[in-house]
Amino acid sequence: MTEQLRTLMRRDLMTALKAKDAVATTAIRSLLAAIDNVEAPPADSHSPEVAQNEHIAGSAVGLGAAEIERRQLTDADLQSVIEAEIQERSTAATEYERLGRDDHAGRLRAEAEVLQRYVISHQEG
User: Fold this and answer.
1) Residue 101: its pLDDT value, please?
2) Which end of the chain is more exposed for a tag (fewer CB within 10 A), N or C?
3) Would you say the pTM of this structure is higher than 0.85?
């Protein structure tokens, strides 16, 4: 389900880009980036074998040796990322409203609404 939802997001991003829908484009790009960040291996991950080479100190040995496998998200992980992105926008919108910046608040609420579609899709799937 995780890959199906990500495929749907990418397709929706292309549609938003073609339609010049700035709100949807921003929201979906941000969500995809958040998902990529969660999948990234921690900075302190096991490092690859380091060569003892006088020419290139600390270089990785062999084809693909410097690559570290990305974390595989479960459906629950993906759901959490989506919900966190929605919550982040809702919280920021509330703060903008408090400061009298209704234009920014409205845009953030519209982005949250775009992302809400994926929560519903995920729960139905």
Assistant:
1) 96
2) C
3) no
